[in-house]
Design goal:
Radius of gyration: 20 Å
Largest sheet: none
Mean pLDDT: 82
Helix content: 55-70%
Structural class: mainly alpha
Shape: elongated
Strand content: under 5%
Number of strands: 0
Length: 182
């Protein structure tokens, strides 16, 4: 029997799922149109990798940052087979807008630990900043191959496809995959 104001569990769950999906897609689209810059990655400033940071741009190259860079370079040179040393060096270059140096450090880390999806994503961001969108896409694809649930790589891939390569269908496909996993 029907009662006034009664909603079936199935209808309620379906409504909630639709609302969540619409909200997620709306939020992604809003953030894209509001700020067409790539989401930075995890490990850099604030203890987060560069690809997870939200920043307005590179941090200034202060004397303290220069000192950190020198210390990390020394650590990487002392332990050239330690991917973490190269990753941290890449992160500080990422944070300070030194794209070419970040690319070099990340590539060295990847020669040691080639399936690090976060580093592959950071490298993709650096290639995008260096006006090499196709190389950025290659690295985002490698990150997704290394970790099929890597959300930031999928998001950034859509950004590059849309804004740098004018590939709207490709961007939408990347974001549909993102919505599928999250």
């Amino acid at each position: 029997p029907k009662t006034k104001g009664y909603v079936k569990n199935e209808n309620l769950m379906l409504s909630v799922l639709i609302a969540l999906a619409v909200g997620f897609v709306g939020g992604v689209l809003f953030s894209i149109y509001r700020s067409p810059t790539i989401a930075p990655p995890p490990g850099g400033a604030g203890g987060m990798p560069p690809q997870a940071q939200q920043s307005a741009g590179p941090a200034p190259l202060t004397p303290q940052k220069r000192s950190e860079i020198e210390g990390l370079k020394a650590m990487a040179e002392k332990a050239p087979d330690n991917p973490e040393a190269w990753i941290q060096l890449g992160h500080i270059y990422f944070d300070t807008g030194q794209n070419a140096q970040a690319i070099e450090a990340y590539e060295k880390a990847l020669t040691i630990a080639p399936d690090n999806a976060n580093v592959l994503t950071d490298l993709g961001v650096m290639y995008r900043r260096s006006k090499q969108p196709k190389k950025a896409i290659e690295n985002f694809d490698k990150a997704i191959q290394a970790d099929s649930r890597h959300e930031i790589a999928r998001f950034n891939k859509g950004i590059v496809l849309l804004h740098d390569l004018n590939d709207t269908p490709g961007a939408l496909a990347a974001w549909r995959d993102l919505v599928r996993i999250n």
